[in-house]
Amino acid sequence: MGVYSYIARRVMLSLIVLLGVSILTFLLTRVVPSKPEIRWVGPRATEEQIARAREELGLDKPLYVQYWKYITDFVRGNWGISIRTKQPVLRDILARLPASLELILASMILAVIVGLPLGILSAAKAGSTVDHLGRLLSIAGVALPSFWLGMILQLVFAKELGLLPLAERADMLVLLLNPLKHITGFYLFDSLVTGNFTVFVDALKHLVLPAVTLSTYPLGLCVRMTRASLLEVLGEDYIRTARAYGTREAKVLGKYALKNALGPVITVLALTFAYSLAATFLVESVFAWPGLGRYASEAIMTVDYPAIMGITILVAFTYIALNLLVDIVLALLDPRIRLG
Amino acid sequence: MLKGILADLRYVKRTPLTLMGLAGVLLLSIVAACATWIAPFPEDARGTTHIEAKFEPPSLSHLFGTDELGRDVFSRVIFGARISIVVGLFAIGLSLLIGVPLGVVAGYIGGRVDEVIMRITDVFLSFPPLLLAMAISVTLGPNLLNAMIAIAVAWWPWYTRILRAEAVSVRERAFVEAARAMGASPGRIILRHILPNCLAPLIVQASMDLGSIILTSAALSYLGLGAQPPTPEWGLMISTSRSFFLTHWWIVTFPGLAIFVAVLSFNLLGDGLREIMDPKVRRRMG
Question: Nearest C-alpha of chain A: how many angstroms from B21?
């Protein structure tokens, strides 16, 4: 099978799953709740608002007509009005996305920088004390409740030691004295390109604790996947051949084994990115980080139905898109995947 | 089959991390079962308040201190173990109840049916479990029972996948063919031949998942979607006390530690079991 027909097949499959996701969210929005229109306008809505919502949602029409309207509305960017902010949900989400992406990217970079070497070390010395420690760390990272870890870090590093700021993305006073020009919405990037170093340092300090908190899960996974995947590759014949030729162990590991072991690691990390979008719900609410996660956790507490459903769909779509992207990239790089 | 699993357990001794996990799980089970006798103030777990004794730091009479309503944190953490274990077992049980039959049917029958079932699992697996459980909890309404149902709805596809893979590989084996040749019905083949052979990977996965499910249910409760006050659920305890934790560290520290220890124990045990039941790994351990 050629690489293009493999890609075509993967795209088709993703489209089918996408259709399924839209049906599932449609069911959760319109069919499972007993009075969906009340969910949609909130418990304090007037009779008139409820009647308007019922008409807007088309609840008197047959299900397939409702579903069609649901899909077309969604594609047109009409994701409903947030009950809490009274703004269109899509606009709310887009406004908060950069803050979350900055946080998630920082945590992923942290996870890879620490996790990859640890995983390699663990695999190279399988069965040793280092390996046991690496495995303990990888399992502990996945077992830590992030919302609790965030509070403990705040307690130790912000309150007791006073080393880092407690919460938020930047100090209000610093921002007031050194106004930041918004280009991408990424504070670190924007402050760096405009030469606003005071804000850069301040934003970086604010980023440390939430990024560390969010990174424990991807870090654990990264160590675990690197170790497992490398051990698998190290058992193969070509590695034995390389060793028999007297190749240095560092070269065997770094050049021959790692290259073939990275595929599964990349896949897992890409999928963890989408998981992190959900994990920020907890972390951002602890650190008052003004991103998608805090928006989501506030939406949950006020039962802001349109906002919750908008975020749910967004994360699922991100997950599917990333999955597809990684599969295509790996297929282009590694002939075994598309031929196998 | 069961004998094989028991024989495998000999290897637990040789893996210190697995032993740690097993000890943690046993401790948690004992604490959960005997909560009424261990907890010094069992009435505090049910929500009795002593406002005059609020914010007392850890001492001999209150090992983990008291919370903002004067309740003994130690007693509440002890009773929290019971809730977490029950939530975990219920959610796992429900997921197995949905996931196992679908997986066996998909793997054994194959063809169109298999294709449809697997695409449905793909759809559910496109959501991070926490997010899907959250969306379902919001839809059903916030309480502990709905949180458990929501978690199960987010989790079953993993079991369908495992069971399908096992059923596909067992289906072609000679003893299944022999049973079919002797006229055994599909139901009998599934119950007597396929399911027992899927037991080992299922036990491993379930023990790993118990940890993740306890963590997810704590997160749901933290967000206000699971247990409701005054239930002594660990995630909820952290959530209700979060405004006071900077000045009274013990209120959130101990429930969080309990979540961590519980999840870590199940993960260590599950991970160890997986390695032990993998013949490739076992050969290396000798």
Answer: 11
